[in-house]
């Protein structure tokens, strides 16, 4: 039954380059360029630390993405479990020796990069589950055994990430995992039942939340409750976006940002600055760019000959979509503030690394779209 | 085959489910765009305003206070350039070092240094800390020399209130100083314009006209960051200086009044008898209002406060005195109007009279003999007025006194500290003292003693209304654009067809004439009480009535001793009063003079009138040249 897996495909280097998806590549380059200029704006129009560091990461991780795309998709299928396992090990490492910042222990200091393994897990979970559902035959998908296994795959990293504590990332990991299960063919009724169960248990969950997490929810429900304290971020964010208007205040002219009214403008609130400076038109443009990227990733998944690539692409497209939705809903005041970066745009190495790896594997799926995996 | 089928089925499921998710994605993106639209397009204005509110902060500067001028346009309360020293704490590197440098350069006391340190704690780091409000030019240039090493120090040139005539106008204008909590709470205008360093009126016209004088702040708009630090200067919005106010007083007359009362406690008021304009209003002693502008020193304050001549009291408006014999014109007028007496009514003065077991003394121990109205006024015979008052009764007397403005505030709307005084009657005594009126009290009221209390400005108004032929006038201290000139008012009063708009205070104008003549004789005929103070030149000639108000009852023993004024302790000496109007042939002005504890009216108060009238009549020529207020622009 078991076939020998050939990792090197029959394409040569130039054929691979030819097979790269240039639409996706072009969109990623535009997004990266935009993110560079926005980072430049957060530094007050000067080429300072954040801009420099962001640029270096962009270049390094972009190259990494290309490198990943030249590896056969089969290879990624092969080492999916291994990668998942490695990230779990990193999470364990973090819980033991991680760097603690303002009460959260999420990081490993690698000196050239402060790595946040939970960000990598966002990709790891998709890889792992994509492989699992690729291998499980259609009859066994809804068996107790296979559902238990996939739930365990989701739960193990969640335990570590929640204990960091990092609610935002946990939710994103769970969502990505659950969506692969959905795509893999798990019955709709199970999703419906677990959703009901979730609603019933919600009050109990809330009692287990950290005080700061409860505060965030309360603040979300009524930001004016404490305008200088917990509600400050969301109020200032709405002011910045709202004051941008149709065409924005102009590049480097976002007053909310350069007068430092905006909190965390480099990271989670980067869209706020973008929207303040480029207005409604700019924001629509950015959303459109993301939409094209997502669509393209889905298309790549659709033309893939193997279920692993298909599941990964669809799952990754959905993950990107979820990141964008959560981040935008947060800065637009539609969701409570949970730490969630905007892919590529936000400052932060781990998030960008994870996203670029994701794009790399998608690209590899495109290059090797004719590849079948037993 | 089977395997392939499964493969196809699997990808079918994946694709179908992907399609569902794709639709959901579209809807969610649509929702995000809708939210963006509502924030950025619908509520754009709202958020733009909020964003500006965030980033723009206004710094108000003290407004320029309006000038106050006298009738002739001389500035009597103006603004002077002053040099100040400010520190911006956030720019200072080492605060203690800076203070020690300033201490040496400016010779500051350690106490002052402590004060500055305290003040710094109350301010936000970007607010300027005023170290010295009024630097001399020497100090200012010294600071400028050392400026390179004094980081965070800002020499500032600004303006501040200045009273060029020092103490001449203090009781009219009041003074300005730093507002305290009550000032800010009680006046919305001050609340609105308040900035550290603003000066507001504390007393007098400066206080009552605060809202006109205060002006509009200059505003500096800065862009600030989230921590309140100034980033950019956006604009400078020029404010508006406060309104100019021109009062009716004449600085020359005011100055002379101050000279005439130098070293004495007392008051001089001068009023135009037709327009009611106050020409002079001086309360002596006065004090320098400039001392209050930057906060008065404790020593100086104690000196003013403890002065036995009480400079803080505005005697013209809030000094309450028994009018003494200056009330006699009103008593006589009331008796004439009520038909109690006529000019031929005769009383025999024996120096004292006995009534109900009490002895009532005339000031002249030997008595005046037989007295008719004119002579009684001329020599101020008390016995005559005892008898007139007895026949008239206090209630009828009060009606006349009320008409002429006694017991009522004269300039009350402008001066918070003015007192109304009182003119008693039987009802008043029952209501206020709970006792019935005693006839003896009517008698002493008839010579202006007892419960009766008047302010110098009331006596001035009373005299003015007698002098103008008995018409009610409205005293004023501010010039106003649509006002008639003295000449126009006079004409209107004297023309029977035009005088409807002036309320007559008499029943028969002949009676007013009789009183005027009696007052004339008192000053200009031999044996008149103020005969020695007369001026024969008809241009300056005036008519008046002296008054000597007892401060305490004279005991029998003291009467026997017949002490001279200088032999009595200061606080027990009589107040000297004098009311007059002139020039007699064509009256223009009324004056009232009071010298506290000055002795008799004829010796202490009347001679002052002589000097006054000489100037007032001369000044009238100048005043006449500015008849039309509209043509006259300061």
Shape of chain A from CA axes?
globular
Low-confidence stretches of chain A: none
Give the total of domains of chain B: 2
Which architecture of the largest domain in chain B per CATH? Answer: 3-Layer(aba) Sandwich
Strand content of chain B: 15-25%
CATH-derived topology of the largest domain in chain B: Beta-lactamase
**Rg of chain B computed from alpha carbons, rounded to a whole number of angstroms:** 36 Å
Q: Count every beta strand of chain B, where a strand is a DSSP E run of 2 or more residues.
A: 19
The whole-angstrom Rg of chain A is 21 Å
Order of helical and strand elements of chain A: HHHHHEEEHHHHHHHHHH
Could you explain how this protein is built, in words?
The complex is a heterodimer of chains A (374) and B (634). Chain A has helices spanning 13-19, 22-42, 49-70, 73-78, 80-97, 117-135, 144-162, 167-184, 188-208, 211-221, 232-244, 255-258, 270-303, 307-331, 349-367, and strands spanning 99-101, 104-109, 114-115. Chain A is an all-alpha fold and 374 residues long. Chain A has one domain. A three-stranded antiparallel sheet of chain A has the order 1-2-3, covered by helices on one side. In chain A, a hairpin with a 4-residue loop joins strand 2 (104-109) and strand 3 (114-115). The mean pLDDT of chain A is 87. Chain B has two domains: 58-246, Penicillin-binding protein 2a (Domain 2), CATH 3.90.1310.10; 251-287 and 312-624, DD-peptidase/beta-lactamase superfamily (Beta-lactamase, 3-Layer(aba) Sandwich), CATH 3.40.710.10. Chain B has 25 helices and 19 strands. In chain B, strands 2, 3, 4, 5 and 10 form a five-stranded mixed sheet that branches. In chain B, strands 12-11-19-18-17 form a five-stranded antiparallel sheet. In chain B, strands 1-8-9 form a three-stranded antiparallel sheet. Chains A and B meet through helix 8, helix 11, helix 12, helix 13 and helix 14 of A and helix 1 and helix 2 of B.
